[in-house]
Amino acid sequence: MNSQESEINLLFFRGFWLEVGSRLHAYSKKASRNPKWFVMSVMGRFKIVRFVAKSLAKRRQIQNYHSESTASTFKHLDANPIATTLKKDGLYCGIILPKNLQQEILEFAHITCCYGDREPHLGFLYSKKEQIEKEIDRTFLTAQYFNTSLLCPAIKYLGSDPKLIEIATLYLGVKPVYTGSRLWWNFAVKDEKPYDPNKTITFFHYDLDDYACLRFFFYLTDVGCHDGPHVCVRSSHINKKTIHVFSPVKRRTDQDIINYYKSENIVTICGEAGFGFAEDTFCYHKATRPLRSDRLMLQIQFAIHDYGLHNDLKEPSLLKRII
Q1: How confident is the model at residue 20 (pLDDT cuts 50, 70, 90)?
Q2: Which of 89, 99, 118, 159 is deepest in the core (most CB within 10 A)?
Q3: What three-state secondary structure class fits 272?
């Protein structure tokens, strides 16, 4: 088996049709909760549908956000060139999270339970990770926090920050809706250990959370090339290969992405703690495997609709701590 065949086998490790079946099963569960989301998830990949959906959304006077933006913690940012860059590239880097908010979120992450491999019954404090792994004989690749906007005032604030809303409004062209936050670790795992890319999404894919969607990401730890940097394919939100649009599977191999989009458009995003960037979720993107240090990342998301499916909200009674 050659390297490309090995990569494809890893990508669709259960087989192509089993992968499609798994996606259909997941889609059917979400569709039962919100049929409008299902329509969007099927039709939203087509450019004309996305354009019509944005046109039909109720517009709001964008200048209203200019007067509100003075209260923002990101006063130094100029929303107009950021939105212009986003429209062209689907990516803008260099939104720095203030030190006080960094510290508050980092402290929250250390005193609040995260949940191993996103499983609600596997809660633990980050400081206890290695101890827990030994006790239950399991290696965690990732861990997510739940209900972050409800429990962490700094994260809640970012969801209503006027400057972030102004950027989202200029980019989306319609009144933005804050659809939720996400805070999670990707853990450094030695190269010789088994690694399931499905748990950390370390393969190229795009997300369809709405007909138009914008995410702000912030690193809460220093992220170099060996610390699991995020990777985004510049301009892939407006330039998708036709077969990729019609394919029932959104995953793509690295070589497939390189062949079509070229290496110079694949951006590996590194930065110190507090470094942030904005990304259109329709761009191809992926996480990378941390080999040196654990990576903690925050996501703040805006869209034109809220389907109630793209947040970290979880019924507290379902959350269980291991010890």
Answers
A1: low
A2: 89
A3: coil
Alpha helices by DSSP H, the chain: 3-11, 16-33, 35-43, 47-56, 63-68, 79-89, 99-111, 129-136, 148-151, 153-158, 162-172, 197-200, 242-246, 254-261
Please tell me the predicted confidence (pLDDT) of residue 261.
96
The C-alpha R_g of the chain, in whole angstroms, comes to 19
How far, in Å, CA of 174 to CA of 214, rounded?
A: 12
Gap between the Cα atoms of 183 and 185, Å rounded: 7
- Give residue for tokens 């941390």: 290
Predicted TM-score (pTM) of this structure? 0.90
Provide the mean pLDDT of the chain.
Answer: 89
CATH assignment of 3-318, among 2.60.120.620, 3.40.718.10, 3.30.450.150, 2.40.50.90:
2.60.120.620
Count the Cβ atoms, other than its own, within 10 Å of residue 259: 12
Span 123-128, average pLDDT: 97
Tracing tokens 């490790």 back to the chain, one arrives at: 13
pLDDT at 5: 45
Determine contact, residues 224/292, Cβ cutoff 8 Å. yes
